[in-house]
Structure formats: C-alpha cells, structure tokens
C-alpha cells in the first residue's frame, strides 16, 4: 500500500476515536457539576449574591492598616579627603627667579616646581617664577603684579627661591645696596605670606594728620599709596591685633628719595626706620615692612615723618595670620666660575659672595619672629654635583638638577612638624 494512503487511514481512525473520547469526557463533567448543585442547594434568592446589605460582616473589607512611617535616613557624613602623606592635596605656590620659572629644564613638566607639585599630589600649583629677578623684583610681583599677587590668609605650601641673581646680575658697587635689600625683602615676603589681611592706607582705621596725598605707585599693593613731604605729618592706626607690619615704599641709594620716620605705641616710643637706601639698585623702589609686635588690647600706633629726606610713602599694614602657610626658603647651589660670570665678569660674582647671601637666609629665618616651626630652609647645595646637574649654560639646573631640587624641597617640607596652615579643608 502506498505510504500516503496508509497515513490518511491512520489519521481518519484516530480522529474518530478522539471525537468519541472528548464527548464522553464532557458528559462526565456535566454530571459532576449537577451533583454538586444538588448536594449544596442555595437557601437565598438568586439575586442575594449581588445584594450588599446581606452578609455584611462577611463581605465588609478589612480595615486598611496605618502605614508605619519610614525612618528618616541618617545624613551622609562629610568626610575629609583621605591623606596618604602630609602634603597631599595642599596648594603649592612658588615665587622666585629663573629656577622657579623652569629655566634649564627641557620641558615645563620637568621643572622642579612641576615635579614637586606632582610628587606631593598638590591640589593646585601656582608658579610665579620670573627669569632674571632679584628678590626685590619678587616683592614687587607678590605685592602688585596681576596674576602673581599674593592673597593674604592663603593656605598651602610656599616655596621661595630668590638668591642667585643677587650675585650674578649685580655688579660693584651696587652689591652693597643688594646686601641691604636682600634681608629687607626676605622679611617683607615672609610677613606677606604669613599675613591674615592687608589693610589699605585708605582704611578708616588709619587717621591722617598733616599733609597727605594719594599717589599712584606701580609697585605698591593695589597700585597706590599715600605720601607726605611735610615733617611731623602723622598716621594713627587703631588695631586690636597682637602685631602688625607697616608697609612703606623703600628707595635705592642712588635716587636720594625716601624719608626717616618714628613709631610710637599708645604714646610710648617704639622705634624708628627709614625708607632711604633700603632697596636694590637693580629695581629702584618697592614695599618694605616694619614690624610692630607685642600689642595687647586696643592699640594706637602713630607713625610720624621725620625731618630731612624726601617723601614718606605709606601702603597700609599687614595683620599676622594665626595659621600661616608652611614656607620653604631655598638656598641656591654654587655654579662653576664660568656660570658665576654668566652675565658679566665681576668681583662680586663669586662662590664666596653667594655663600654670604645664602647665609642671610639662615640668619633671617632664625630670627624670633620666624622661628616658630612654620618656615624651613632647603639646601640642595649639600648634595649638588655641578658637573651632572647644571645645564650647558653652567648656571641653570638641567633635568637632573631640577629633580634634585624638588627632592630636597619635598624632604624639607615633609620633615617639619607644622601642619595647621597647609590644608584648605
């Protein structure tokens, strides 16, 4: 028999059997349902199922439970950054000459300021290096140059490196004035970096007596100061600070400008100063500071212009911060004889003269005013190799030299115990 005919016959036979099976199954189901109805007859009218008034207690919905309020979540605590070493996340500020600016390094990233910022994971790096600058020029920048001006009460790590040009760019006889300006400028920069506020000369806390006039002075804070040429003219400053630093404009010896002045505190003589011949011949005039300390309660400080000389310029005063930034003052390594004569040959361009200026750093930082643990000195010269660490010009550090300076500064900064004025959080 052909396969197709055989298949059809099987389907027909199965179909007839299936139909009978499902009819029998259906009849059994109907009968079972009828039996259930007979065994459990309804005693209520057919419409009672839909009557909401019957069996009220059985059909009444369960009362909705009062939800339990969710507890107020605990506020997420604000955590300080996790610090893995003492200087991490600290802002870095650098002021100084061409070393700070990165001269001698093959790329900006290889300068010692950039290297230091990366090694300590500084939150920001603010490089204010000026090629060719002596320390007086650095004072000008920190006081008045847009983009480089120091902001009082800043926190972080400050690096100051401004020695070398006082030796290699200053010739005789100007070297004598440079030796006066260097400590004056170093003290002024340290006081500025450690200040809480710079009160301008126009503040109501400064009362003028005598003849005072406003004057535009490019190197002064805000580009202006007040001046007097009349002996006996006074400024009376009322303050509750423990100490302040008067900011006056100093002049170089060759100009013959400036004036002597005297200071009293609550009517008692305190001291005197002068702005004549107090700055470098290289830059001319800039802010220098005069510290008045040991104040208690409310003090009246009177500044009086002395006789003789020229005009006395006043540029406000600084209040000292209770938590100043940490400061590293850098000594410069000694170049070769050819490097010392980089600008021109001169009797002052010697290793011995550089040692004198480096020594001034030690002397100023050791003064009681600054000997409080917030300032340290870094000296790369102790491990310096002039053969391998200077660039071909024999005066600027090469990549190796920049790396060594960064190491020495980092070691000095991480070694001092002071921490309060470093972090901004």
Structure description:
The protein has 425 residues and is an alpha+beta fold. 30% of the residues lie in helices and 22% in strands. The strands form 3 sheets. Strands 4, 6, 7, 9, 12 and 14 form a 6-stranded antiparallel beta sheet that branches. A 5-stranded parallel beta sheet has the order 2-1-3-15-16, with helices on both faces. Helix 4 packs across helix 11. The longest helix has 37 residues. The N terminus is likely disordered.
Secondary-structure topology with pairs:
Blueprint lengths: L2 H37 L16 H4 L32 E5 L1 H4 L10 H8 L5 E5 L5 H10 L12 E5 L3 H4 L6 H19 L1 E5 L6 E4 L3 E4 L7 E5 L5 E6 L4 E8 L8 E6 L2 E7 L10 E8 L6 E7 L6 E9 L5 E5 L6 H4 L10 H15 L9 E4 L7 H4 L9 H17 L10
Q: Key terms for this structure?
A:
single chain, 11 helices, disordered N terminus, 6-stranded antiparallel beta sheet, 425 residues, alpha+beta
C-alpha geometry: flat
- Please give the number of β-strands: 16
Radius of gyration: 43 Å
Tally of separate helices:
11
β content, as a range? Answer: 15-25%
Write a short abstract of this structure.
The chain is α+β, with helices and mostly antiparallel strands and 425 residues long. The chain contains 11 helices and 16 strands. Helix 4 crosses helix 11 and helix 5 runs parallel beside helix 7.
């Amino acid at each position: 028999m052909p396969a197709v005919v055989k298949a059809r016959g099987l389907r027909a036979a199965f179909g007839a059997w299936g139909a009978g099976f499902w009819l029998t199954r259906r009849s059994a189901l109907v009968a079972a349902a009828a039996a259930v109805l007979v065994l459990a007859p309804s005693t209520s009218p057919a419409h009672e199922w839909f009557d909401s008034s019957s069996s009220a207690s059985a059909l009444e919905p369960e009362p909705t439970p009062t939800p339990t309020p969710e507890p107020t979540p605990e506020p997420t605590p604000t955590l300080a950054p996790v610090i893995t070493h003492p200087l991490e996340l600290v802002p870095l500020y650098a002021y100084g000459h061409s070393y700070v600016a990165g001269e001698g390094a093959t790329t900006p990233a290889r300068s010692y300021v950039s290297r230091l910022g990366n090694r300590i994971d500084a939150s920001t790096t603010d490089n204010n290096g000026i090629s060719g600058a002596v320390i007086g020029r650095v004072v000008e920048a920190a006081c008045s140059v847009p983009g480089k001006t120091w902001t009082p009460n800043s926190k972080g790590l400050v690096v100051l490196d401004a020695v070398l040009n006082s030796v290699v760019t200053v010739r005789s006889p100007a070297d004598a004035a440079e030796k006066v300006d260097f400590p004056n400028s170093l003290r002024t920069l340290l006081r500025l970096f450690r200040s809480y506020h710079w009160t301008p000369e126009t503040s109501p806390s400064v009362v003028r007596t005598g003849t005072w006039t406003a004057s535009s002075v490019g190197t002064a804070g805000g580009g202006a100061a007040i001046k007097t040429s009349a002996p006996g003219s006074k400024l009376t400053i009322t303050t509750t600070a423990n100490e302040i630093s008067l900011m006056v404009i100093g002049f170089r010896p060759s100009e013959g400008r400036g004036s002597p002045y005297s200071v009293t505190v609550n009517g008692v003589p305190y001291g005197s100063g002068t702005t004549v011949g107090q700055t470098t011949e290289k830059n001319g005039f800039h802010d220098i500071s005069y510290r008045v300390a040991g104040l208690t309660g409310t003090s009246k400080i009177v500044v009086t212009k002395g006789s003789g000389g020229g005009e006395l310029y006043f540029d406000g005063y600084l209040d000292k911060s209770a938590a100043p930034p940490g400061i590293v003052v850098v000594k410069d390594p000694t170049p070769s004889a050819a490097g010392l004569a980089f600008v021109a040959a001169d009797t002052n361009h010697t290793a011995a003269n550089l040692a004198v200026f480096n020594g001034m750093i030690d002397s100023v930082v050791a003064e009681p005013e600054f000997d409080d643990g917030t300032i340290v000195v870094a000296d790369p010269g102790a491990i310096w190799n002039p053969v391998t660490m200077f660039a071909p010009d024999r005066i600027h550090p090469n990549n190796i030299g920049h790396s060594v300076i960064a190491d020495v500064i980092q070691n000095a900064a991480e070694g001092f115990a002071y921490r309060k004025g470093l972090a901004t959080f």
